[in-house]
Amino acid sequence: MSQRNKIPEQKPEERRKNFKEVNLGYTKEQAEAEAKRCLQCKNPTCVKGCPVEINIPGFIKEIAKNNMPESIKVLKDKNNLPAVCGRVCPQEDQCEKNCILAKKGSSVAIGNLERYTADWEQSLFPKGRDVTHPSNGIKIAVVGSGPAGLTCAGDLSKIGYDVTIFESLHAAGGVLRYGIPEFRLSKTILDYEIHSLERLGVKIEKNVLIGRTKSLDDLFSEGFKAVFIGVGAGLPKFMDIPGENLNNIYSTNEFLVRVNMMEAYKFPEHDTPINIGKKVAVIGGGNTAMDSARTALRLGAEEVTLIYRRTEKEMPARIEEFHHAAEEGVKFMFLTTPVKYTGDEKGYVKEMECVKMELAESDESGRRSAKVIPGSNFKIAVDLVVVAIGLSPNPLLPSLTSALKTDSKGEIVIDDNFMTSIKGVFAGGDIVGGETVIQAMGMGKRAARSIDNYLKRN
Ligand code: FAD
Ligand code: SF4
Questions:
Q1: Partners of 368 in beta bridges
Q2: Ligand 2 pocket residues where CB is under 6 Å
Q3: Residue 387 covered by a domain
Q4: Claim to verify: residue 350 and residue 246 sit in the same structural domain
Q5: Any idea which ligand is nearest the CA of 179?
Q6: pTM
Q7: What is the CATH number of the domain that holds 380?
């Protein structure tokens, strides 16, 4: 059986010095060859793995025929952010995992093909395309412009609602903009997708913090008939160990926001500095850790070490990102965790004390837990540390809205229809426990359907 076509990439030794996209995308010949591998199954198991229900064989068939206008039509029918998904979705755990060819060898490269079709549209219509749809004049508010909010807004707009997204930051996109680095998802690509939603009629009001600038009650008073909350999980977690408050110890959020949104890599041309130093340690094993480590390399660190308390097998990061990071020169120290930081006389971190760990029994998530090996302490010199051990639900809106129920983890409680404890207020994405872009989008899509049903009944 034919093997999947590899996507061209920038060479590791080149890309570790720049912020340009690592993956370069298929050529026409590669895309058509890959599309022809698809068996066009009558019962396509790949679709069952897609939270936004894309007609996968449908858009792939059109690539094979070089009928790109039809391919993008099929793709965008279900997915409002195809160029984003083609770049950052963990397809290996979803559609591609369920592809029939995965059992016999290598799955169809669905993500790479999705990216190819979306990029075809962006290169052929750089200013976007107008789409017409019905209008019912009913106003809906969406809080947060991450993938959950953008998807919910797009789907509601397509069926005629008058949707306004309220975003607290000065630019839309949520983690897609402030978290995921340029070398994985270019801002130009993201801007195009957001602009396409605006062309659909979605309005975006930036610098509006719902809960403070206006409350949910204010939104209803302004005539919005329903609200969708997609405020994400932007609260950084720390380990709470001695010395964690020293200078040059960042949360992954602060580090990536400084680089992505405040262009710290252009200091002093832009006024946000990052004093990267020579030796950088990143704590964690997820996508955020991988992104921080690879960003530190590109900022000029001589040595970047990712420190993870379990092994490579338990790392939650996408396998592709792990391989890319290793190729670029990120070092990995597994079964290790920091216990203490020491600073210099000016309060800057200079040393990190770690302990070795060993794997123990599985925890409730099914992953093996890790326990400290007593007396295994050792020290390493560091100039900068990024703590990337996870993020918690954004607490601001719930804390300012007493009627909005949350659970013990701080996630907003929803029913089977994504409705919160407040009538007419729905929620989805990381704020209700999602963990990936596509999960957030899937929830945004299903919530849009529920909102439509709710408004038809009320
Ligand atoms: P977010 O993307 O967090 O968006 C929430 C938005 O709401 C933000 O723009 C925020 O400013 C705004 N907001 C918050 N409070 C308010 C308020 N009160 N009023 C108005 N606006 C408000 N997932 C993947 O699938 N693949 C990856 O490769 C991947 N890499 C990642 C890398 C990093 C560095 C991080 C941090 C996450 C990554 N993830 C990845 C996870 C993924 O990005 C999230 O699961 C997803 O973005 C969640 O979407 P969301 O819409 O729920 O929230
Ligand atoms: Fe094509 Fe694989 Fe989906 Fe079958 S399961 S339709 S081969 S992508």
A1: 362
A2: 38-41, 44-46, 56-57, 99-101, 108, 110
A3: yes
A4: yes
A5: 1
A6: 0.92
A7: 3.50.50.60
